Amino acid sequence: MVSIKRLWLSSLIFIIHISCINTSDVYVCNSPNAQRYHLNVKCRGLSNCSYKTIKTTVQKAKKEGRTLCKWER
Fold first, then answer.
1. Domain, as residue range, for 55
2. 9-13, 33-37, 56-60, 67-71: which has the minimum mean pLDDT?
């Protein structure tokens, strides 16, 4: 019975840990004309970027005036 309780507790801790993972990371093209941020580095809209792709946060991207890519809405 103790092993079932441990398994249940371990599962609960794992689920809580997974739900707390930071999902606010986004990707932006480092072009001076880029206006969008992307949730996926392989986004169709980001594939046209000829500059470096940068990982940043949603907050920073929005602060720079960027909006979510239309392909990811």
1. 23-73
2. 9-13
